[in-house]
Design brief:
Structural class of chain A: alpha/beta
Shape of chain A: globular
Number of domains of chain A: 1
Number of helices of chain A: 6
CATH superfamily of chain A: P-loop containing nucleotide triphosphate hydrolases
Radius of gyration of chain A: 16 Å
Strand content of chain A: 15-25%
Oligomer: homodimer
CATH topology of chain A: Rossmann fold
CATH architecture of chain A: 3-Layer(aba) Sandwich
């Protein structure tokens, strides 16, 4: 429940950008980050999304995002899925490029909200070094809101974050053999 | 994690619309529904959002949604917050109107995805009758994807749904006294 729904909460603007984490095994992490981007764009805030591990997909979200002038994005990652037990140097290189892009965007002073999509997984699987992510969080300009998505958020990141939601899978159509659907899941 | 990320999952379109529920006490339920709407609109799918309990807020999301031609919405609910221990007849009337709108939209054959925002709360607090919600889920046209959001999703709804994510609050800035922020939370 967003605070907007909380009985008795008066609304107050704050200029301090928080660190939000959406993690867990349920559907809704990237989707919620996307919703946050959409909401922010409605207020004229500038959003940048760095996709860490989504190389080959024709995501509907990216087509939709292209229609929204306040939202920019950059996509990294190779075609196919990363095998955590056999990460390739090329995959690491993509993730490092994503992290470099994240740094540039965060320190550019051009964006109010920066979404680091699947950075939790990239960190958990050692595609990038967690020390660099921690440094980024600690040194970010105060006004920038950071949203980190992906399963396996490290406890150190959770500790640094202001808001953490664990999206827990109660039921997923995948369990019934229904696969991802265009327009709905990607 | 959306299925698009699942290693080994080949993607297959299905014409059957599922029933998804985003519930729990964490941030991200309405936000994820919003992201789903955005993603779908990128594929040219038609989306309708019925807000059950959001009368008075100048939600940024609604401004943003107005820019997207494939997304329509209708908002119900009075100014101020509903007190579950003292629900007024006027509040019930708003929720009933929202449910009536939901029925019209779902059976209109004009929309691929219908989002019923905060319907779980409206049901849990008896603003509307759960039997009517169950009937709606059971009788909806096959192609319509339904997304139900809000805390307190009833077990009967969870049982009927194909996908259920529980958004669990691990940390929320509200706990530190930081209130909802324009552009970020509403």
């Amino acid at each position: 429940m967003s605070l907007g729904n909380t009985p008795g909460a008066t609304r107050k603007a704050t200029s301090k950008g928080l660190v939000e984490i959406f993690t867990g095994d349920g559907k809704g992490k990237t989707t919620a980050a996307l919703g946050a981007a959409l909401r922010a764009s409605g207020h004229g805030l500038k959003v940048f999304i760095v996709y860490f591990m989504k190389g080959g997909f024709p995501y509907g979200e990216q087509k939709a995002l292209s229609q929204l002038p306040n939202i920019k994005f950059a996509r990294f990652g190779l075609e196919g899925f990363v095998n955590p037990n056999n990460v390739t140097e090329a995959e690491k290189e993509e993730a490092r490029k994503a992290l470099q892009m994240a740094k540039e965007v965060i320190f550019s002073n051009e964006y109010d909200i920066v979404i680091l999509d699947e950075i939790n997984v990239a960190t958990a699987w050692n595609l990038i070094n967690i020390a660099e992510v921690i440094k980024l969080i600690k040194e970010k300009p105060e006004k920038v809101e950071l949203i980190l998505t992906g399963r396996y958020a490290d406890d150190k990141l959770v500790e640094l974050a202001d808001l953490v939601t664990n999206m827990t899978k109660i039921k997923h159509p995948y369990d019934k053999g229904i696969l991802a659907r265009k327009g709905i899941d990607y």
